Amino acid sequence: MKSIFLALALIATGVHAAEEADDNPCDKVENEVQTLECSVYSRSAAEDLLSENYKSLADRMQMLYEKNPAQLTDITAKLKAAQQQWLKTRDADCAVEAFPATTGSKAFTIAQNDCVARMSDERSEFLESIGQE
After folding, report:
1. Residue 22 confidence (pLDDT)
2. What percent of the chain has a predicted confidence (pLDDT) above 90?
3. 68, 72, 48, 77: which is closest to 60 by C-alpha?
4. Helix, strand or coil, per DSSP, at residue 23
5. What digits encode the pLDDT tens for the residues 3-13?
6. Taking the CB of residue 53, how many other CB atoms lie within 10 A of it?
7. Which one, of 124, 113, 116, 133, lies nearest residue 55 by Cα?
8. What is the pTM of this model?
9. In 103-122, which positions are buried (b, 16+ CB within 10 angstroms) versus exposed (e)?
10. What's the Cα-to-Cα distance from 86 to each of 8, 50, 65, 72, 97, rounded to whole Å?
11. Per CATH, the architecture of 29-129 is what?
12. Among candidates 36, 51, 42, 47, which has minimal Cα distance to 24?
């Protein structure tokens, strides 16, 4: 009888866990492990959005300058150089921001992830604003 209740409890827990798998890990942060999971999720989401907005900007430039290949080549090169430089600056700034924590520690990783997420979100908004009519 106990094993039946245990099996039912495990099944119910598994179903509940599967339902919550779609939840944002930042919804309920109560400990350091959850804080780390949230920071990883936030960084990943922000970097995905940054990538999407960079691609959208490249597409907008393609549409705006498709009749002038020289200008398209010029703006495309400038955007690529600016983005590469920005990524280096972001990573350097986030290393400075996370500095008090020991490299590789949870605190360092959380600080680094939070910084990258915040700065990437800001950059995404900037990229989104370029070339809008």
Report:
1. 63
2. 69
3. 72
4. coil
5. 333 333 333 33
6. 20
7. 124
8. 0.77
9. eeeeebbbbbbbbbbbbbbe
10. 53, 12, 24, 21, 16
11. Up-down Bundle (1.20)
12. 42
| Integer Cα distance of 29 and 32 in angstroms | 8
Two tokens, residue 85: 């430089």
The one-letter amino acid code at 133 reads: E
Structure tokens at 7: 């099996």
Q: Which pair of tokens denotes residue 89? A: 């600056």
Give CB contacts under 8 A, 24+ apart, made by 14-21.
none
The DSSP letter of residue 133 is -
Dist. CA 128–CA 84, nearest whole Å: 17
Quote the CA–CA distance of 38 and 36 in Å, as a whole number. Answer: 5
Number of CB atoms found within 10 A of residue 50's CB: 25
Domain positions in the chain:
29-129
